[in-house]
Specification:
single chain, 269 residues, mainly alpha, Cytochrome Bc1 Complex, Chain D, domain 2, 2 domains, two-stranded antiparallel sheet, 11 helices, 2 strands, 59% helix, elongated, respiratory chain, Cyt_c-like_dom, cell membrane
Length: 269
């Protein structure tokens, strides 16, 4: 007892006890706190998926099947990823109003929170492209000239060289890209909705996609003016060339006929 009392009176005893208490507290926190946080995140994600499953059962299962495996009325959604759901539902294309050659854009009927829940549920069925972050699709710092080159090479055949859209075969069409949210343009390139091919990062890098978005923002912005004057709808060189041939050449022929008639009349006089 005397030895123990002597140790308690040692000047370093309080410091040793404090260090041991701190070490024990840190060990307990490291052992339990991260697990609690991970468990909370996992629980929240499970609830999000469960809510998305309920929404899916009401609004999507009739066409895509109860397990999203697909039916004769709708393709399988297993492995399409959250980006495909965010695009299709976020632009109002899904749920589809009626069957047809192509599902058009319409008013969105789900809130963004509900869209996120649907996306979480579909993602849980199979890996696929994730919803892009704002930094990925923001046109800030992008190369507009490079974006124009990439767009004309990969997209203009269907969407026209300024993204005004165009007709395809069998009643299908490439929609106008004017006024489309940059996030949805990025997601469309990722997932290839409907008739559009997909452009994964191995084909068009994240920077390439940003450049294309920046180009579309530049040519379709609110304050954009056509450098050549009347743009004729921005439909491109084919339609504008046809306009020049029909009206330009037609006008020249009309002037030539008028001059010939005036000349003939002058000779008779």
């Amino acid at each position: 007892m005397k030895k123990l009392s002597a140790r308690r009176r040692h000047p370093l005893a309080a410091l040793v006890v404090l260090l041991l208490a701190l070490a024990a507290t840190g060990g307990l926190y490291a052992a339990f706190a991260p697990a609690d946080k991970a468990q909370a995140d996992e629980t929240a994600q499970s609830l999000t998926i469960e809510e998305g499953k309920k929404l899916y059962a009401v609004g999507c299962a009739s066409c895509h099947g109860t397990g999203a495996q697909g039916t004769t009325d709708g393709p399988s959604l297993v492995g399409v990823g959250a980006a495909a759901v965010d695009f299709q539902v976020g632009t109002g294309r899904m749920p589809a109003q009626q069957p047809g050659a192509q599902v058009p854009r319409k008013k969105v009927i789900y809130t963004q929170a509900e869209i996120d829940q649907l996306a979480a549920y579909i993602s849980s069925l199979g890996a696929g492209p994730a919803v892009p972050t704002k930094n990925q699709y923001s046109p800030e710092g992008a190369d507009i000239a490079k974006g124009g080159e990439l767009f004309r090479t990969n997209c203009a055949q269907c969407h026209n060289f300024t993204g005004k859209g165009g007709a395809l075969t069998h009643g299908k069409f490439a929609p106008s890209l004017e006024g489309v949210d940059p996030k949805h343009i990025y997601e469309a390139m990722q997932t290839g909705p409907q008739n559009m091919p997909s452009f994964p990062d191995t084909t068009l890098s994240e920077q390439n996609k940003k450049d294309i978005i920046a180009y579309l923002d530049a040519v379709n912005g609110d304050d954009t003016e056509s450098p050549g004057g009347l743009e004729l709808g921005g439909l491109g060189p084919v339609s504008e060339g046809l306009f020049a041939w029909v009206f330009g050449l037609g006008g020249l022929i009309a002037i030539a006929v008028w001059l010939a008639a005036r000349t003939a009349k002058a000779k008779k006089s």
